Amino acid sequence: MKNAFNALLRKGVWLALHLYFKKIAVYGKENLPKGKAVLIVANHQNALIDPILIATHTQLKPHFLTRASAFKNPIAAKLLDFIRMIPIYRVRDGIDNMAKNQETFEKSVKILSNKGSLLIFGEGNHDMHRSLRPLKKGFARIAFQTIDENPDLELLILPIGINYSNHKKSGSQVSIYIGEAFPANDFYPKNYEGIIKETTDRLGPLVTHVPRENYSQWLALLGKNRIDITDPESVKKFIENQKLSQETEPAFSPYFTNKVMKVFHFPVYWIWLWIKGKIKDPTFTATFKFVIGLVFVPLWYLFIFTGFPSLGWGSWALPWAFLGILYLLSNTNGQA
């Protein structure tokens, strides 16, 4: 039951993601291991969007480690458990709760021991800045604990980089780079420094890096020169060979299709405007937008075909739906 639900959910979320984003490009599919225990280590820039992109575009059907605060509500906790999410506790969740991570590690080890896949965001936090932050020891600890209990198991570390053209806007682009996996066994017993360095060296080239100093100016210059910010190699070459101008013009963002799309989905847009002011962490902007669209866009189209006729607007239903879908598919936002 749970596996069937997850399979159906993945298909629905995959479709919704391709409506939300203008383009989702996946590179390195040939690097996906088959029939192996896989610990996926990825960068983390966009809250819930990151794990669902990996879950729907890698065929690995991973479990996820996610921050424990999302499990505070009992109903939410059951739902998250149902969709393969496992809580990970941080100091901010309370010192007393840190002991609960032992149960998290035990679940993770069990999944990997059965040749499943587990996704962990190695940086230990999320940040919309485009760079790879230093990796924490958490993934290495899980890897070594798994090998401790299963000495004959080959455990692969799979680096995956996710890059967004615009973290907050729909109609933008995202690229997923799947790197080459390597055996964690090569660094056993417990060479933390070695496995973290190897993972960093393999994950780094898969993630776009924009210098923190003069960050906004670099983004504007990249946009002005039409450099695809979701392509780490192109961005690296451009920055290495470009001097930063203090008079860089902001990049142009094509808003027309986005604004018309909002008109045809105005009730959904109003719900977003109501929730928007309640979001404390801007990294969750896209997550809330996506979930609102996932839930309310189908309801809006259901109302168009059932509610419009009952209001005497039956002749409007089909053209409104047609134009709404047309502008939803053509929705575009520039890099930012």
UniProtKB/TrEMBL annotation:
GO terms for molecular function: glycerol-3-phosphate O-acyltransferase activity; glycerone-phosphate O-acyltransferase activity. The chain crosses the membrane at residues 286-305, 311-329. Residues 38-165 form the Phospholipid/glycerol acyltransferase domain. Keywords: Acyltransferase, Membrane, Transferase, Transmembrane, Transmembrane helix. The keyword Transferase applies. CDD domains: LPLAT_AAK14816-like. This is 1-acyl-sn-glycerol-3-phosphate acyltransferase. The lineage of its organism: Bacteria, Pseudomonadati, Bacteroidota, Cytophagia, Cytophagales.
